[in-house]
Specification:
single chain, alpha/beta, globular
């Protein structure tokens, strides 16, 4: 984490619009080189100190997930990748309150329907 925060300190010296951090789990605490009682995104956000926006990503699927993520105050924007791949209509499902219909697990039998690059497929959690 120490190296990550050093990188962030260098990045915010530049005229950038945002920093996008992709985590396996949005709410994951730091493990090494930082306070392990705080989340990685919280520590990064503190380091940024308002100099640019932080976008966080990590296992967010439902409207509640996004509300919790934004509600932490750690990020200005929350993003997703896998949730949209699994649910091309994700925004509609969330907007209409159909969180229970949101697919959260990859189904190997539906590989073709996900339109996932072949190089990425073996790396996805199944």
């Amino acid at each position: 984490m120490k190296e990550t925060l050093a990188l962030v300190q260098e990045l915010i010296k530049r005229d950038i619009q945002y920093i996008h951090v992709s985590e396996k789990e949005f709410f994951q605490n730091a493990r090494r080189g930082a306070d392990d009682t705080r989340s990685r995104l919280d520590l990064i956000h503190e380091t940024i100190a308002g100099k640019t926006a932080l976008i966080g990503l990590g296992n967010l699927f439902t409207g509640d997930d996004f509300d919790k993520a934004i509600g932490t105050g750690w990020v200005e924007l929350a993003a997703t990748g896998r949730a949209v791949m699994l649910n091309p209509d994700l925004a509609t499902l969330i907007r209409e309150g159909h969180d229970s219909e949101i697919q959260t697990k990859l189904d190997p039998a539906k590989e073709a329907s996900y339109h996932c690059p072949k190089v990425l497929w073996p790396r996805l959690p199944q």
